[in-house]
């Protein structure tokens, strides 16, 4: 299983029946493929729709129905469409249960940096700052390291997305929960040791006496 | 009273140096013909307020490529490397605004409000130089309203008075921008006789629309 699949499968387990969920572009969108059976989740696309689902087949795209990256998408029966003001009322007003976002860095305070690399990459924050500040639960889905360098740091050195502490960090190596005391190592991936996770992490990790293995559906 | 205006004539009302709000999200729900005509007429030194600049050479990306934009207020330019390059080269001044804050600042501009209090951006680079206010123990950033000389918006359907309805994710910033500019030019996929759009489906009321252009001839 490749690292993105591991992350997407583990994040999918966090979604509950009836949740309103916003997935960031890139890795987080893979989560839709691994939803647990028997639950209904409403996916919001920040450009103005609730009830988004992948296109059922090629050739049925509509010009006026796209995801936040501008790619044609589809919606379920019972979906709703709205303008950008309403979309961000949902996000900022505490109506969004879960947001899953990619990350460049997370630190010991549980703060996330994911919107720019000064001098190199200035894409803009889009809806990321609103999502992290406003969602009930923020899950960061990212690879544990970038070209071998840790992304979970003592202190983010890239501009923060929000001062709000994120709720969960899922990587291909581990599940980590930011708390008042610091970053708690909740799970390690199959075949990965606690020592390997610690070695790949710059931040101090709080390691409980037993750390269970991440359980993923086949 | 019909507001239908010839494309060339409608766009000719926009002078060089004007501030324009342009609807659309990655080009979806953008007024394609109005943008093409702005480029054709060689308008320059524009300030653009929009969610994004689409992709290189597409919709608002055409104005970027033509060098028509002096200043940009947007939430995301990540899918248009030409905008990023012009920003880094100092050709365009770019103000990046969180998307929800952008929507609410425009709403404030159109609703006569003095600004918006929001938690988004507190403690980040977005907060630099801005006032904060504590309300019930929570800190909020003061964000100022946005208005424009012209709003260029795109609708699915219009009637000849300029009542507008929209379609799915092509709606996005269009309805709120229609309230926040001195002059509103709407481009519609089709223009139908007055009365054919049921009142409950009118999302932008005709009184705010000044000129109406059909998407195709």
UniProtKB/TrEMBL annotation, chain A:
The keyword Metal-binding does not apply. The keyword Ribosomal protein does not apply. PANTHER family: KETOACID-COENZYME A TRANSFERASE (PTHR13707), SUCCINYL-COA:3-KETOACID COENZYME A TRANSFERASE SUBUNIT B-RELATED (PTHR13707:SF57). Belongs to the 3-oxoacid CoA-transferase subunit B family. This is 3-oxoacid CoA-transferase subunit B. Coiled coil: none annotated. Keywords: Transferase. It comes from the Bacteria.
TrEMBL record, chain B:
Coiled coil: none annotated. GO terms for molecular function: transferase activity. Signal peptide: none annotated. It comes from the Bacteria. It comes from Rhodoplanes tepidamans (Rhodoplanes cryptolactis). Keywords: Transferase. This is CoA transferase subunit A. The keyword Transferase applies. Gene3D superfamilies: Glutaconate Coenzyme A-transferase (3.40.1080.10).
């Amino acid at each position: 299983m490749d690292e993105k699949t591991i992350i997407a499968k583990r994040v999918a387990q966090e979604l509950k029946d009836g949740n309103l969920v916003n997935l960031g572009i890139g890795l987080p969108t893979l989560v839709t493929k691994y939803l647990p059976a028997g639950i209904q989740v409403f996916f919001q696309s920040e450009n103005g729709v609730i009830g988004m689902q992948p296109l059922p087949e090629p050739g049925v795209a509509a010009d006026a129905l796209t995801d936040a990256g501008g790619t044609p998408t589809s919606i379920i029966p019972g979906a709703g469409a709205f303008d950008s003001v309403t979309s961000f009322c949902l996000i900022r007003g505490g109506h969004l249960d879960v947001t899953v976002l990619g990350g460049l860095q997370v630190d010991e305070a549980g703060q996330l940096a994911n919107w720019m690399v000064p001098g190199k990459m200035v894409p803009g924050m889009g809806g990321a700052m609103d999502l992290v500040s406003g969602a009930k639960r923020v899950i960061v889905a990212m690879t544990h390291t970038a070209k071998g360098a840790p992304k979970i740091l003592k202190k983010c050195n890239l501009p923060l997305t929000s001062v709000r502490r994120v709720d969960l960090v899922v990587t291909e190596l581990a599940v980590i929960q930011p708390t008042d005391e610091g970053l708690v190592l909740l799970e390690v991936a199959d075949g990965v040791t606690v020592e390997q996770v610690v070695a790949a992490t710059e931040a101090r990790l709080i390691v409980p006496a037993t750390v269970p293995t991440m359980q993923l559906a086949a | 009273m019909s507001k239908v205006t010839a494309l060339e004539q409608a766009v000719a009302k926009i002078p060089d140096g004007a501030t324009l709000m342009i609807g659309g999200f990655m080009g979806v729900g953008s007024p394609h013909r109005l943008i093409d005509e702005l480029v054709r007429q060689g308008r320059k030194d524009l300030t653009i307020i929009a969610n994004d600049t689409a992709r290189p050479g597409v919709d608002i990306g055409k104005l970027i490529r033509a060098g028509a934009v002096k200043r940009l207020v947007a939430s995301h330019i990540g899918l248009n490397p030409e905008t990023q390059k012009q920003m880094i080269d100092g050709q365009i001044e770019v103000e990046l605004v969180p998307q929800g804050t952008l929507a609410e600042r425009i709403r404030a501009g159109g609703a006569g409000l003095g600004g918006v209090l929001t938690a988004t951006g507190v403690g980040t680079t977005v907060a630099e130089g801005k006032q904060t206010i504590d309300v019930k123990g929570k800190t909020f950033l003061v964000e100022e309203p946005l208005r424009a000389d012209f709003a260029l918006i795109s609708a699915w359907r219009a009637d000849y008075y300029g009542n507008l309805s929209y379609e799915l994710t092509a709606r996005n910033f269009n309805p709120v921008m229609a309230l926040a500019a001195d002059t509103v030019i709407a481009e519609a996929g089709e223009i139908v006789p007055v009365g054919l759009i049921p009142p409950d489906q009118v999302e932008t009321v005709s009184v705010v629309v000044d000129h109406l252009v059909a998407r195709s001839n």
